[in-house]
Amino acid sequence: MSATLASLLHRLEPTWSILLVEKEAELATESSNPWNNAGTGHSALCELNYTPEKNGKIDVSKAIKINEQFQISRQYWATLVENGELSNPSSFINPVPHMTFVRGAENVDFLRRRYELLKDEPLFADMEFTTEPAKIFEWAPALMVGRAEDEQVAATRVAGGTDVDFGALTRALVANAEKQGAEVRLSTRVEALRQQSNGIWQLRINDRAENKKQVVRGRFVFVGAGGGALPILQKAGFKEIRGYGGFPISGQFYRTDNPEVVAKHLAKVYGKASVGAPPMSVPHLDTRVVDGKPALMFGPYAGFSPKYLKKGSYLDLFTSLRFHNIIPMLAVAKDEFSLVTYLLSQLTASKKKKFKELKDFMPEAEMKDWRLITAGQRVQVMKKDAKRGGVLQMGTEVVSKADGTIAGLLGASPGASVAVPVMIDLLKKCFPEQFTAWEPKIREAIPSFGTSVNADPELTKQIEERTNKALGLNR
């Protein structure tokens, strides 16, 4: 998010000075790291948690919105490639089909109804549906080999899906920002920040590599620190952050780099969460392409750590507690019993039980080929709610001060895939006086800006052809 914002700001205001501060010695070591996230290029083509069912009716509006947002990100990346600001797009985005795979009569019926609702939407026009085992075998053999012949199964597939390495993309965006004059400081921590009477923010930063402390000032501060954003925003002390809390959830994935196993599966396949499980638990078997090498990962398996970052402190959760956010967090704990139950079941699950979940997807998987890896920390946002006391926010949310001088991003999925539209919305909110003048420049980079791609089939086709060509996705 921060790298995207720096890129956008330089395009809109090339004379502004930009400083990026990163506490680690390298960029993108937390949630943007490819092994710390699912990397689906969240476009809602396969993720069932974006098409919830309530009272027998499936709502596809969120799926359409997220796909629209992803198209904005794709267009911006394509423009950067065309302008020579990003090179070698295959280093961060690769074609990988997106599939949904379900088992059992009830889930088959759900997937069929979901398909019927989406197939006529321009952004989902290429979606295929089948209940034929032979067809699913053709799409993803590993899902079917060794499976009982009488098991009811169904799948959807969109051949034009992608895998995105957001770590590589982050580093490329920051490298380009540096070429254009931005300053980047690694191994540097923000220790304190306060707003002066003239509206300027004063930040005390500590360069741990050189053991040097310094005070820097800026007219605008964005906190894109992943799970570490909440503590920094709390230090800023503006009233809009009051009532926000964060509950950290750690995760694990099974991963294999065995070429023989990897060659049997080329797809991102999402399933359906078990009854009572929260949306974040949706199982998926993903092809990942990192540093040009394909691999497979399956998960997620949830765990608990009080850290807000993978390299954070065990005190993160406790030091974030305030009088104003304890009640919302307790209210969520009371209402979200399914989340508590899910976490407990995951914490007590044996390695053998976890591997059985993988075998439900890939019947012939062998444990010797797979290893458990620790993923990034997810910090689920909790905030005040007038009726319930507190609610769990499943998506991402930008929190900003009323004067627009500071903002931060909280939450998780869909996250990085929608970084460009989220940062544009932030610019509109925090720079209302400048935004009208910026719109032509935004439209140059994102031709569909201000319009609905999904409402215009011809526009959808044009954007797809252009971005596929620029990003090298026709291979």
- Strand percentage lies at 15-25%
Number of DSSP strands?
A: 22
Percent in helix: 25-40%
Let me know the largest β-sheet: 10 strands, mixed
Q: How many structural domains are formed by the residues?
A: 1
* Fourth CATH level, the homologous superfamily: D-Amino Acid Oxidase, subunit A, domain 2
Shape descriptor reads globular
What would CATH call the class?
A: Alpha Beta
Radius of gyration: 22 Å
- CATH structural architecture: 2-Layer Sandwich
Distance between the termini: 28 Å
Low-confidence stretches: none
| Average residue-wise pLDDT | 92
CATH topology: D-Amino Acid Oxidase, Chain A, domain 2
Structural class category = alpha+beta
**Number of helical elements:** 14
Family: Belongs to the MQO family.
Cofactor: FAD
Pfam family, one: Mqo
Protein name: Probable malate:quinone oxidoreductase
